[in-house]
Amino acid sequence: MPKNTLPKIIFLEIKEGTAFTECIIKQYHTHLFCHRGSIKFLFNDTPMVCKSGQFLFWFAESRLGQIQTSKGFKATVLLVEKDFLTNNIPDQGWSINAQLHSRVFPVKNIAAIEEKERILNNFKWMNQRFNETEHRFYDEALNLQMRIFILEMWHTFANEYEQRRHSLQTGTLYQQFINLLQQYCLTEREVQFYSNLLNITPKYLNHLCKSHSGITASEWIQRHAKERILILLQNKDLNISEIADEMNFSSRSFFTRYVKKVLGLSPSEFRNRVN
């Protein structure tokens, strides 16, 4: 393995009082299964808790604060270096929705014992593959194991994801808006589009979002569009014009201006920075 680089995988068994340092939060995607007790935290300024039997996923550079573990807390954690995971996400349509869903709902309910075992085995196999440094095809095998890890996690979370989507469809107007946003934000970036589907005015939709989450519908739309742009720009198989077409921009120049607005960089500048 190259020297002077962050480990791609860190496997931990943690207990109460364990500190999540700023370096870990910024550099690693956190996968945590809670065995006992609970962990409380602020996620995008919203109080959340992960309890015994639940799974927690934080993207690297998530906006987190006030992380506290309860008495008797115990968890198994797999940390994956941010670029290593991103570079090995399988090229499937489900990936964008799965990522966006996790950025809104980081805590997952794991009801079945076999799914708990699947998660913990997935952690163990990933760590074992990372430590097999004498393997003749180490890099290739490790990358393949990372892709299998992601697919296994998606399999585990698919039912929870679909159940939550169904509850959102039958929930409040605000919840329905969030669900619609996950479905349409790739191509629809106007408040009017979503307010029409909900049969309310854009002004009222902005008011609902502001009262429920502290940010307007416009800001929600821009957040989701930004996430999609980041995911698509990291896909090296797509050129910038293809991404602009996929996101329904009328021209590459309009797409470039929008990207500079939300990222502070042009699409080309962003790709040059991450490569």
TrEMBL record:
<protein>
    <submittedName>
        <fullName>AraC family transcriptional regulator</fullName>
    </submittedName>
</protein>
<dbReference type="GO" id="GO:0043565">
    <property type="term" value="F:sequence-specific DNA binding"/>
</dbReference>
<dbReference type="InterPro" id="IPR018060">
    <property type="entry name" value="HTH_AraC"/>
</dbReference>
<dbReference type="InterPro" id="IPR009057">
    <property type="entry name" value="Homeodomain-like_sf"/>
</dbReference>
<dbReference type="InterPro" id="IPR020449">
    <property type="entry name" value="Tscrpt_reg_AraC-type_HTH"/>
</dbReference>
<keyword id="KW-0805">Transcription regulation</keyword>
<keyword id="KW-0804">Transcription</keyword>
<keyword id="KW-0238">DNA-binding</keyword>
<dbReference type="GO" id="GO:0003700">
    <property type="term" value="F:DNA-binding transcription factor activity"/>
</dbReference>
<dbReference type="Pfam" id="PF12833">
    <property type="entry name" value="HTH_18"/>
</dbReference>
<feature type="domain" description="HTH araC/xylS-type">
    <location>
        <begin position="175"/>
        <end position="273"/>
    </location>
</feature>
